[in-house]
Amino acid sequence: MLNVQHNPTLLKIYFYFRTVLAFFLLGGYLISESNQFFGTLYPNLFLWTLLAYLGLCLFTSVFAKPHKLVNSFNRLAASLIVDVLAIVLLIHASGGIESGLGYLLLVIVAMAGIFIRGQLGIAFAAMTSLLVIAETLYLFQLREIDSKGLFSAGFLGVLLFCTAYAFQFLTEKLRRSNLEAEAQAAFAAHLQRLAQAIVARMRTGILVVDSNHRIELINDSALRLLDLARESDYHDLGLASIPPLASLVSDWQTKSRSGPPQVLELRAGQPVRIRLSMLEFGTSTRTVIYIEDHRVMTQQAQQLKLASLGRLTASIAHEIRNPLGAISHAAQLLAESPSISKGDKRLTEIIHQHSQRVNQIVESTLALSRRKEPQPETFDLNHWLPRFVNQYRTGQNVAIDLEVGTGQHMVKMDQTHLSQVLTNLLDNGLRYSRLHTGTARVLLRIGKSRHDDISYLEIIDYGPGISDDLLQHVFDPFYTTEERGSGLGLYISKELCEINQASIHYHRTADGMSCFRIDFSHFQRMF
To answer: What's the rounded Cα separation, in Å, for the pair 380 and 385?
Structure first.
């Protein structure tokens, strides 16, 4: 909203007004030449003054730039003074104040009250009053007017002061109202920008669609969780471009807008939790889709589960270890007996092997339950991974190929947990590669997701891979296809990833190789 005292439109209207006024006075003069209504005392002075004033008005109306003039006090004041002088000369040429032309000065003083603030506006009214009174006294001395003219001049002077005060008061009030309105508008705009920034950066993805399932709002978190390009404009795009969400919204509306939150895997290995709600917006309605990273909730559940598991395993470990130790010790003593047969000795070996396996399960479960809260650190995977590989290969005849991505690949995770996860995955990958190809070889590949700045790590082996019918059980606890395995390696790896808000899943690469992939969460997230 423009300030009244700096409104070029109002000044332009005034320029048009005085141009029309000059034409009106010229027409009145030409029409009334016979009865001498205008210019009765000095006709030539009236005509030439009016023509000069008309020319000035036409020039300023056509060529003057009000937006520059309104910000220049000297030019504006000079223009108003020229108007006053021209009207005073026309009054003088028409026989004085009783001609009625003096009331035109009220318009000029009113404009001065609008555009000139404070005492200068009152001073302008005083100057105009003095000019009117001086002109009236001059004509009174020449005996061209009587004492009534003096009274009219004084009365006009009072009107000029009242006009100046009244318009300055109204202008100041309007100015303050405008300032308050501008302040409120600026504050509202600030709140709107703040709300937009909060919505854009909040961790919960928000997607708003209208009644025609067209996208009206989508924030950065929603783009990241849906694996959509941030550079594209999704406004007014149909929700049909995201098929899982489109079907979910349709089902939700069919079920009378009810039902629990749904967990979908829109990106491989990264499940999201989706909640829907209806927003009344004026006479229309909007559907708001809240998309949350399910890994955060899984992490919280993991912490509760580990706390309960710790209390449980601590109580049963003692009950299992003592009889297990007794069984193992008895089998060893029996195996050392000189009278034992070969068949019985084989049985004692079986007892000892399975006792060790049960003990390994107990140790793994205790290690899982005793695990402390993660201590996440932000680091560059490109620098950390080669150091880990060098330490892992020490003393082992294995081949680990490494593909490091370009630029930085910042992640946030407990380095001890990541080391344990990679150790489990490398042990499995190298073992199956050796069994399948005769060579212990794996490939570690670092990359970034297609549409965001989230890094991932792939562990690719040369083994036969996991069949589809076993894939759903691969992360289950105590599930193993190895005779001597505990079935907790992949389970613990998954638990460690989830407690660090990362995710792990299995898939085959484009060339059909077996691959475990760790998707890290954004390194700027909060734990």
So the answer is: 9
pTM beyond cutoff 0.70:
no
**pLDDT tens digits along 221-231:** 777 777 676 66
Q: Which two tokens stand for residue 318?
A: 């003692």
Mean pLDDT of the chain, nearest integer: 80
What's the CA gap between 427 and 442, in Å, rounded?
Answer: 10
Kindly tell me if the per-residue pLDDT of 463 is higher than 70: yes
As a whole number of Å, the CA-based R_g of the chain is 45
Give 369 or 42, the one with higher predicted confidence: 42
- Hey, what long-range contacts does 390-398 have (CB within 8 A, 24 or more apart)? 392/422, 392/423, 392/426, 396/440, 397/440, 398/430, 398/440, 398/441, 398/442
Q: How far apart are CA 50 and CA 56, in angstroms?
A: 10
What pLDDT, on the 0 to 100 scale, is given for residue 384?
92
The tokens for 409 are 């690949």
Tell how strand 399-403 and strand 441-448 pair up: parallel
Percent of the chain's residues with pLDDT above 70 = 81
Residue 322 host element (H or E): helix 294-335
CATH superfamily of 377-519: Histidine kinase-like ATPase, C-terminal domain (3.30.565.10)
pLDDT in tens, 27-54: 888 886 544 667 788 888 888 998 998 8
CATH value of 201-293 in 3.20.20.80, 3.30.450.20, 3.30.1330.10, 3.40.50.720: 3.30.450.20
CA 165 to chain CA centroid, Å, is 49
Q: Residue 52 CB: number of other CB atoms within 10 A?
A: 14
CB 204 within 8 A of CB 221: yes
Q: What angle do CA 242, 245, 251 make, to 5 degrees?
A: 135
